[in-house]
From TrEMBL:
Taxonomic lineage: Bacteria, Pseudomonadati, Bacteroidota, Flavobacteriia, Flavobacteriales
Pfam family, one: Aminotran_5
Keyword Isomerase on entry: yes
Domain Aminotransferase class V: 62-380
GO molecular function ontology, one term from the record: isopenicillin-N epimerase activity
E.C. designation(s): 5.1.1.17
Entry keyword set: Isomerase, Pyridoxal phosphate
Protein name as it appears in the record: Isopenicillin-N epimerase
């Protein structure tokens, strides 16, 4: 897998295949894949179809290993501590199913986590007689210290694992997970960080963070095709993780040096081409000054978030600084029907933007990436004014 020389764009909007007639503010849900990375995806898919057996049995595993090495360099970790998974929810299921929870044990989280992960912990905790504690976080946040104070109020001598997002889904907030990891270690409990929105969005050094378990999506802010994510597990915990799907890697006839990889990397026949595009995505970001571009996007979010909140009569969910706000901003709104509101924004105004509800509060979450402009945000502002005049937002 070699880096292409033709991945430098003067206008990065041209790199994306998004519809011209849609104002796209929902990068946070599934991302969008630039043309060179998508072409790499299709190149691997064609190679798969030219000789399926050789690809899946021989070449594919070598490609996968090379891809993991490149991702590990990007995330600052050991490649043998990474396995690829289709999405972070899959990774959470691996850990939740395998964790040796007993009746009465507790998993401490927050009440602003991603719904699919909440459901996963509810399911496995109920199965094992444990409790999933969704500690209430006071919003808006006033400081990092206030968040930490709220969070640790949920800790008890029964807490066995801390689970929380580094960047939340509905609220779009960046949480102080480094401090959480440090304090959890001091208290002697494991930490699992859901970093679905992190890679390609804000800097991530897994060695420095030192979480026991970490999952992140590559198909969001890291620009790869859909269905490419990873699970990072510290070496001392790997053998306790059972395969979510039992396949040929379990008690393998040809074991590798890593049970972790044998158990979790191959789960039967599937197209894993999306995983193999990660080196191309890293090269694309490097060539196109992604850190600088991300900073410009973050500045745009921070400029417009207070303005849009004021328009609908609400306030930002935290101080509008790099500490809490990245390339996503969530606007608290009052409305009768969030689903209808989302559909109206799309059908009438051609704006693709999520309207989510958490703890009874609706949020319009806008994501900004390199193809978005001030004109896009003016379009959103005008749409919100119209909806407010029609009393669809109040």
């Amino acid at each position: 897998m070699e880096e292409s020389e033709n991945i430098l764009y003067n206008n990065l909007k041209e790199a994306f295949m998004l519809r011209e007639d849609i104002t796209f503010f929902n990068f946070g849900s599934f991302g969008a894949c630039p043309k060179p990375i998508f072409e790499e995806y299709q190149r691997f898919q064609r190679e798969l179809e030219y000789e399926p057996v050789q690809f899946i049995v021989n070449k594919g595993p070598e490609y996968m290993k090379e891809s993991r090495v490149r991702l590990a360099e990007y995330l600052t970790c050991d490649s043998d501590d990474l396995v690829y998974v289709p999405n972070p929810t899959y990774a959470v299921n691996i850990v939740a199913r395998s964790l040796d929870l007993k009746a009465g044990d507790e998993v401490l989280s927050t009440n602003i986590e991603y719904g699919a992960c909440d459901r996963t912990w509810d399911f496995y905790c109920a199965e094992k007689g444990a409790k999933y504690i969704k500690q209430t976080i006071s919003l808006p946040l006033t400081s990092k210290e206030a968040f930490l104070s709220d969070f640790w109020k949920g800790f008890s001598d029964k807490t066995r694992l801390v689970f929380l997002s580094q960047i939340t889904s509905a609220t779009g907030l960046i949480l102080p997970v480094k401090e959480i990891c440090e304090e959890a270690k001091r208290r002697g409990v494991l930490v699992f960080i859901d970093g679905a929105h992190v890679p390609g969005h804000i800097p991530l050094n897994l060695t420095e963070l030192n979480a026991d378990f970490y999952t992140g999506a590559c198909h969001k802010w890291m620009l790869t095709p859909k269905g490419s994510s990873f699970l990072h597990v510290k070496s001392e915990h790997q053998k306790q993780l059972d395969p979510l799907v039992v396949s040929w890697g379990y008690k393998s006839d040809f074991p590798s040096q890593s049970q972790f990889l044998d158990y979790h990397q191959f789960n039967g026949t599937r197209d894993f081409s999306a995983y193999l595009t990660i080196p191309k995505a890293i090269a694309f970001m490097k060539w196109n000054n992604w850190l600088g571009e991300a900073e410009d996007c973050r500045i745009l979010v921070q400029k417009w978030l207070p303005r849009l909140c004021e328009l609908v009569g609400s306030k930002p969910l935290a101080p509008v600084t790099d500490e809490f706000i990245g390339q996503m901003g969530s606007i608290p709104v009052e409305c009768d029907n969030p689903i209808d509101l989302k559909n109206i924004l799309y059908n009438e105004f051609k704006i693709e933007i999520p309207v989510m509800v958490q703890n009874g509060q609706a949020y319009i979450r806008f994501s900004i990436n390199v193809f978005n402009t001030e004109e896009d945000l003016v379009r959103l502002e005008n749409a919100l004014k119209d909806l407010k005049e029609r009393k669809l937002i109040f």
